[in-house]
# Entry
Amino acid sequence: MKVASDNRKRDDCKPGRRVQIVLKQDQRTGKTVAGIIGQVLTSSPYHSRGIKVRLTDGRVGRVAHFEEDDAAKNHSS
# Structure
């Protein structure tokens, strides 16, 4: 059984992973957008609100969750 990734740990945020991020302007609502990590911007190994990344399309935000983890949850039900 695979343990779900933690969006607050830098080691789990690798370029190429499909994620849902919260853009700066959407922090109050929590609205997420999907994309692929192009670059990890947070330098510390942990951040309580999520690791900041730049998607391949240039949008920047904090990782809310990983799409692979969502798919695994849906299939295990």
About this structure: The two ends are 14 Å apart (CA to CA). The chain has a mean pLDDT of 89. Strands lie at 18-23, 32-40, 52-55, 60-66.
